[in-house]
Amino acid sequence: MMDGLLWDNLRDLGILKHYKMNKITPEPIMKIMTGIWLAQTLYVAVDLEIFTKIALGKNNVEQIAKDLGIDKSPVERILNVCVASDLLTKENNIYKNNEISERFLVKNKPSYYGDFVLMAGKKENQSWGNLKQSVLNNSPMADALKERMQDSEDAKMFIKAMHNNAIGSANVLSKKFDFSKFTKLLDVGGGSGAYSITLTKEYSNLQAIVFDLPNVCSVANEFIENLNARSKVSIFEGDFFKDEFPKGSDVVLLSQILHSYNEEENKILLKKIYDYLPENGILIINEFLLIKVF
Asked: What DSSP designation does 16 have?
């Protein structure tokens, strides 16, 4: 790993002599701090379509540099960091994708995860950069996200990224929960429609509605069309706090929604869903949780 290599270099330079007699070192802190270096290297490699080029046979420094129209030196550095990060292998100056990068970082594959990498890597999309202000003001980062969703290009980038992130979970959910007893899914804040598309393909009895903001729904429409899901999945534009839910659903999905809002807002949303569902209706929550392991 890049941070491991940095740590070895510092040790070789003697900078860590101060810690030589003490088993407690700042290494764990340093690994956290330098993690952004690896993240940005991955972002650049995906943005330059390095893994896709290698998959297509352009697998040495000269070929990739020529294809990109840039100098060989930075290309070689990026490639070697990817080797050190176990994303590529190198033998006789020939680079190859490993199993992970071949599956998740080559464009046009169904399992492609690059849109998420690109979204997270762009500085203007790094909401965590506002963490201090959010902590000081006790303001959810969802406020900034909602503002970004008003811009069609920002919305498209974010929703494509979330689609990458949702496909695997949607497949797992289709196996973990039996939807055969239900007729219509309301996918609240459904983004690209990844869950709705996956679940309705798995269950012939199930229809789905993706309920989200207008700019988000325009992106969802593209996914629904491209994945031939128009007969099973429909779109409903609106704000799920302000607008009434479309009628008729007996199962509601909240996937990665609650963590963006405060306790009071979540109570309002959950009460709204409770009042909306029929007597034997079901709410499914997929969420980030902070847990303490004893």
From this structure: G
Q: Using alpha carbons only, what angle is made at residue 189 by residues 153 and 250, rounded to the nearest 5 degrees?
A: 150
Any idea what DSSP says for residue 113? -
8, pLDDT greater than 70: no
Amino acid found at 275: D
Q: Is 186 helix (H, G, I), strand (E, B) or coil?
A: strand
Provide the β-strand partners of residue 253: 187, 284
Q: Tell me the two tokens of residue 166.
A: 């949702």
Distance CA 255, CA 240 (A): 13
Is-contact 212 255, C-beta < 8 A? Answer: no
The answer to whether the CB of 229 falls within 8 A of the CB of 200 is yes
Query: Tens digits of per-residue pLDDT, 43-77?
Result: 999 999 999 999 999 999 999 999 999 999 999 99
Cβ contact 148:214 at 8 Å = no
What is the distance between the alpha carbons of residues 218 and 242, in angstroms, rounded to a whole number? 20
110 contact partners, CB below 8 Å, separation of at least 6? 167
- Distance between CA atoms of 177 and 252, rounded to whole angstroms? 13
The DSSP string of 228-284 is: T-TTTEEEEES-TTTSPPPTT-SEEEEES-GGGS-HHHHHHHHHHHHHHS-TT-EEE
Q: Say which amino acid occupies 141.
A: M
Q: Which amino acid is at 257?
A: I
Distance separating alpha carbons of residues 7 and 166, to the nearest angstrom? 35
